[in-house]
Design brief:
The protein is mostly helical. The chain has one domain. It contains three helices and no strands. The protein has helices spanning 2-24, 28-32, 34-63. The chain starts with a helix and ends with a helix.
Length: 64
């Protein structure tokens, strides 16, 4: 039991440290093109939400 707890804590620490190391290395091109990236993400989310609402509506109409 102690081995399992120690293993989990060790994996959590390694994951946390790895995340911090990777997060520290930002992509400069992404930072320069923030407006375009934000616009692209907004369009993607809008399309997905609209398609999801249509899919739920069709499901309710046909199956309920």
């Amino acid at each position: 039991m102690n081995f399992a707890i120690i293993s989990v804590i060790l994996i959590l620490l390694i994951s946390f440290i790895s995340t911090l190391v990777i997060a520290g290395k930002g992509d400069e091109a992404y930072r320069k093109e923030t407006k375009r990236n934000t616009t692209n993400l907004t369009v993607i989310y809008t399309v997905v939400i609209i398609l999801s609402i249509i899919a739920v509506g069709l499901y309710i109409q046909w199956f309920i």
